[in-house]
Structures are given as C-alpha cells and as structure tokens.
Amino acid sequence: MPAADLPAFVAPASGSLKAASHSSNHPQRHPSSLRPAVESDAAALHSLAADTFPLACPPGTRALEIERHIAAELSAERFAQFLADPARELFVAHRDGELVGYTMLVYGEPTDAEVAGCLTVRPTVELSKCYFALSQHGTGASAALIALTVAAARARGSAGMWLGVNEHNHRANRFYARHGFEAIGHKYFYVGTELNDDFVRELVL
What pTM, to 2 d.p., does this model score? Predict the structure, then answer.
C-alpha cells in the first residue's frame, strides 16, 4: 500500500498512538489506539491469539493440531515469556478497552538455515506474529499497526524485516505484498504435528 494511504498517527495525552483514518465517514473505519504491549496484556494476548490463529491456518488443518499449537506456543505463559524477552517487541491495537490486534518482532539472525540463506539484507528482524480480530479486517487498523511496527524496527537499527506466511493464505499474502513484503523463498512451519509450506517474504527498511 502506498505510504499516502497509510493511516496517520496522532499522540493522545495517554501516550498511546491513535490511527486516524483518512476516510472518517466510512462506517467501519474507527480510530484504534496503538501501543507497546506490557506484561499485564499476556492473558488478553492469549485470548486474542486463540481466536485469530485458526483464521491463518490453511483449509483442512485439523482442529486438534490447532489446539496443540495454541496450547504450546500461544498460552498466557508463553506471552509472558515473550514480553520479558529483550530480543522481542510486541505491539497491540485496542478499541473500547479490548485488544483487537497484535504484532511481535523477534530480533537477531534467523535460526532457520533456509530463511537465513534467502534474506537479502542485514541486520534483520522477524515479524513473527501479525494478527487481527476478524471484526477489524478492512478497518485500516492492521495497516496502522504494521506502520508502527516497521517504524520500531527501523528505530532499533534493522535494515530488513522478514516473515513466513502460509502459501494458501491468499488474503494475508495480498496484504503483505501491498505493504512491500516480497516473496523471496520458502520455509516449513509446524501446526501441532502438521507440516505446512510457507512463503518467506522480506521488506527492505
């Protein structure tokens, strides 16, 4: 998406960020507050992740495998660990006091050799998670949170950002392509015990 189409940011007195829509008369586009996640968000992040992760899984993924992944990787305890990790940054969007979206950055060299071999710039950061409640799709909130997340990575000195996205998640692939993430390779991703094929996408910052 061209930079001109991204939501603008205004800083309210609370210190969080608000994404202001350019189409204020659009019935579905309302400002969302954006901020870094904090320790007390862990339980709400788990709840949001449990609702949104299944939306990103390819058709045919068994419910049991999705449940296993959520329990192992997206529990409140895991989010508490993520929030305490200095190599990670998490950001959230909230509306009317409820979390509606989140992103997570993981700094450092990728541990997956296939990913490391196809990236074009260093230092890099992984956009490990980017999820929004279904009710927020099409509101502009995801574009605003991506813009904030990219700005944070640049401020920390990253020259590139990469992510993995399922090859069959066409909506997500279109979204990332609009925001400048180019498909540069492939990797594998486990949901429970099921192996999935992902595109590796990279954004040069």
Answer: 0.83
- Residue ranges per structural domain of the chain: 3-204
First-to-final CA distance of the chain: 15
Per-residue pLDDT, averaged over 7-25, amounts to 34
Sign of the dihedral through C-alpha 106, 132, 31, 205:
positive
Torsion angle defined by CA atoms of residues 160, 95, 40 and 42, in that order, rounded to the nearest 10 degrees: -60
Domain 3-204 sits in CATH 3.90.1300.10: no
Write down how long the chain is: 205
Residue 29 has a pLDDT of: 53
Closest to 91 in 3D by CA, of 128, 36, 161: 36
Residue 7 DSSP one-character state: P
